[in-house]
Fold this protein.
Amino acid sequence: MCDDDAFQIRPGEMAITLPEACDAGLYFIGRISTPWKERTACPKNPAEARDPCQITLAPAYVPGLRDLETCSHVIVLYFMDRAPRNIVVQKPRHYGEARGVFALRSPARPNPIAMSVAELVSIEGGTLTVRGLDCLDGTPLLDLKPYFPSIDAHPEAVVGWRDKENS
Amino acid sequence: MCDDDAFQIRPGEMAITLPEACDAGLYFIGRISTPWKERTACPKNPAEARDPCQITLAPAYVPGLRDLETCSHVIVLYFMDRAPRNIVVQKPRHYGEARGVFALRSPARPNPIAMSVAELVSIEGGTLTVRGLDCLDGTPLLDLKPYFPSIDAHPEAVVGWRDKENS
């Protein structure tokens, strides 16, 4: 399950050989339904993703939702399993500089776990309606967590390379 | 590796039977060094965790750090492998109400992936010094990402059950 698919790297990119075996395992605990069936149709980032999406938990996990309805925002961890895991330096196809994967939010990463903060609209049974996700329809869910502004909100944070690109 | 260890659940808690097989695999890409060798010694939450910690990547992944030094805050995903994964309704030992695991930041969860936002102090080679982590010494690292305030900072977020508890 940790196979490293064949792929072409672009000039300036760097690929590594991943370990032969994985170190731990994940359960897919549900699925995310979105309007986007192909990667090219997805919003560019969660700030542009205003369409409501549904997150449906497998039945066994539904009791774990108790009290989540009192939260306005939910941290959603999901698995992006359609990208290579071995490109540690990456370059967008048509522009930009090569950057380290850990300075990017690219889906292509050694452990393709996405973290998005979504607004919780409602919970009905095992299905949440949220706003702010930008992933493909059918994406596997890994975890939900309450968003605590006291530890998770850092409005003063700076991403230097992005600011330089935009200036 | 997805074995469900035997454990005692407390009154009001609910355990489930986890699937026999995992759906995807993780690589441990580094380790986090902290001052805390036992769970009872860890800070209660990241807001109280001001001691600097070191994150050291395995050598193959170090090129992936390029440009991360321009970021003030880093999203750190790590694996909390010392807690049961099958308790979907949880109750603290000495107080509190039973709540769903997805309304809590407890390390005991189906996929024990923690998300913490850390201040980046410095990067030297493959080692980052950060502030704001509260995990055990030796915790396996899964991912690092840049923190974008435009999508990750939601100071207005509410955790209703917590506000009620504190009022």
In short: Strands of chain B lie at 14-15, 24-26, 30-33, 52-57, 73-79, 87-90, 99-100, 113-124, 127-131, 139-146. Residues 160-166 of chain B form the longest helix (7 residues).
